[in-house]
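User: Could you check the structure of this?
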Amino acid sequence: MKLSLLLILFIPLFLNSQISGKKSSSPILIFDSLNVKVGDTIYLGTGSDRKGDFVSIYQPPNVWAGIGETSLPRDYAGKFVIIKHFKTGEDKRTGKKSVGVANPWGGFNFIIDFEQGVRLKEIISINRHSFEKKEQATVVVNNKPSVADELSKLKKLYDDGVLTKEEYDAQKKKLLDQ
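Assistant: Sure, the predicted structure tokens are below.
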């Protein structure tokens, strides 16, 4: 009886895939401009494989259970996931980099490869910071954007968490001193 209870409690631990790398809750920088933090919301587009599943969000293979890599299913198109923590390391698929870890339905952890996800349009925004290129009306004087336009862009970067308060203040001062 006790053995059966122990098996029931511990079997799910062996069936859950292990994500290699060093666990971290420190923010990571993607695209050299956007800080992603634990608890951030990742808004999903559509999966890019032939069935519509997500290529950039996947569960690694589980040797113990004989289960291969599993992509996040197409049912998540248009939904979101929350960053649980990060893993930094090296493996065959991702190379050396930091990836996000999310738990979309409360069962198993999935890896999020941010750069691939954005490139494939599987990730459309992080905390509403959109990766879609939008045409912007820019006032140009002598082939240079106006100071007001540059201040507006700078404020958006600060609001999105890309810049710290110190970085924002320094860049703002530089623009106003021109």
